From TrEMBL:
Residue spans crossing the bilayer: none
Domain of life assignment: Bacteria
GO molecular function, one term: triose-phosphate isomerase activity
Signal peptide positions (record): none
Xref: NCBIfam families: PRK04302.1
Keywords: Isomerase
InterPro entries xref list: Aldolase_TIM (IPR013785), TIM_sf (IPR035990), Triosephosphate_isomerase (IPR000652)
The protein's name in its UniProt record: Triose-phosphate isomerase
C-alpha cells in the first residue's frame, strides 16, 4: 500500500499526456524506470488508462500513475476509470482535477477518500492560491499548483504565485506535499522550484516531443540531486 510518507522529495512526475502511445510510450517508461533506479527521489510515470497495465508489467522503480480516476465503485459506470480497477492492476497513484479533466468538489472529495482506503496516492491540481487551499481541505497526498493559463506554454510560474500557493496549502495542512508545475523545460527550471521550496515538479509535452528524450530526462532528474 502506497502512503504519503513513502514519497521521497524532491519527487518528479513524467507525464507524456496523450502525445505518446504504445511502444513509444513504453520505451519512455522504461527509460524513466532506469533513471529512477539510480535516484532516491520518488519518480511518478503518468499514462492513459489503456497503457497502464503494460507499463506496470515492464517497470520496477517508477510509481505508475493514472491521469485521472473515479470513485464510482464496482458495477455500473460505463466509460469510467474506477479506482478498484487501478488498484487491481498495480497502479499506485492517480492525478485528479487536471485542467484538461476537471472534477467537481463532490467528485474530488469522494475520489480522494476512496483512494485513501485503497492505498492509492492522489495528486490533485489547483489553479489559484484559493483553489489550492480548497483542495488542501480535502487532504490529498500532493497538491500540484500550476496556473491553468500557463499549462503547455513553456512559461514558468512567477515567484509570487509559487510563494502564495505554497503558503495557502501549508496554512490548511502542512503535511500535504506540494508540487509546483507549468512550463518546466530543463534541469535549471527544476532546481529553481526546489530552491523556492517546492517538494516536487514534473514535465509533460516538452519531454514527449523532445528529439533526445534520454538527454533531457537525465538533465531533469539530475537536478533533483
Amino acid at each position: 500500500m502506497m502512503k504519503r510518507e513513502a514519497i521521497t522529495p524532491p519527487f518528479f512526475t513524467v507525464s507524456p499526456k496523450s502525445y505518446l502511445v504504445g511502444n513509444e510510450l513504453l520505451e519512455l517508461a522504461k527509460l524513466t524506470d532506469q533513471y529512477a533506479k539510480e535516484h532516491e527521489s520518488t519518480i511518478f510515470f503518468v499514462a492513459p488508462a489503456t497503457e497502464l497495465v503494460n507499463i506496470v508489467q515492464n517497470t520496477e522503480h517508477v510509481i505508475v500513475t493514472a491521469q485521472t480516476a473515479d470513485a464510482n465503485g464496482l458495477g455500473r459506470g460505463m466509460g469510467r476509470t474506477i479506482l478498484e480497477s487501478l488498484k487491481e492492476n498495480g497502479v499506485q497513484a492517480t492525478f485528479l482535477n487536471h485542467m484538461e479533466h476537471q472534477l467537481t468538489i463532490k467528485e474530488l472529495s469522494t475520489t480522494i477518500i476512496r483512494a485513501k482506503e485503497l492505498g492509492i496516492i492522489t495528486i490533485v491540481c489547483a489553479d489559484t492560491p484559493d483553489e489550492a487551499a480548497a483542495v488542501a481541505m480535502l487532504d490529498p497526498d500532493i497538491v500540484l499548483c500550476e496556473p491553468n493559463h500557463l499549462v503547455g506554454t513553456g512559461t514558468l510560474s512567477d515567484e509570487k504565485y509559487i510563494a502564495d500557493t505554497m503558503a495557502a496549502v501549508r496554512k490548511v495542512n502542512p503535511d500535504i506535499l506540494i508540487m509546483e508545475g507549468a512550463g518546466i523545460t530543463c534541469g535549471a527550471d527544476v532546481r529553481r522550484l526546489i530552491r523556492l521550496g517546492a517538494q516536487g515538479t514534473g514535465i509533460s509535452s516538452t519531454l514527449a516531443l523532445a528529439e533526445n528524450k534520454a538527454e533531457l530526462l537525465s538533465d531533469l532528474l539530475g537536478a533533483l540531486r
